[in-house]
Amino acid sequence: MKITAGYIELKGLSFFARHGVMEQERVTGGTFTVDVRVKYDLSAAVRSDDVKDTLNYAELSEIINREMQTPSNLLEHLAGRIGGSIMDAFPQVEEMIITVTKKNPPIEAQLEGAAVTLHLINDKTP
After folding, report:
1. Exposed site from 37, 77, 87, 109, fewest CB < 10 Å?
2. Hey, which residues are catalytic here?
3. Backbone dihedral angles phi then psi of residue 83, each to the nearest 5 degrees
């Protein structure tokens, strides 16, 4: 069996946080969700069944939680910060797709949320 690609995904992480350009968004806060799909070589974990051979998704969640607690004006900045912190902690990450959604943005429209999605490539992967 040959593995052509492997991913760890965390879907629908939900946070109360204080991100936004408007002062009121920082004061009252709001609900945000984060979805992340991280690509890296999973072949050792597939063979070993040992957590030391994989990317620990609990640690991944902790990194995202920590970054969500630091306010940003823009979702773009927040998503980039999360991605950078993940790649710093896990240099074996080849690439990732991260989506940050503000569930109730301050606009006059009925919608599920406003989101930013980044596709990041780790240019430091050996």
Report:
1. 109
2. 102
3. -60, -45
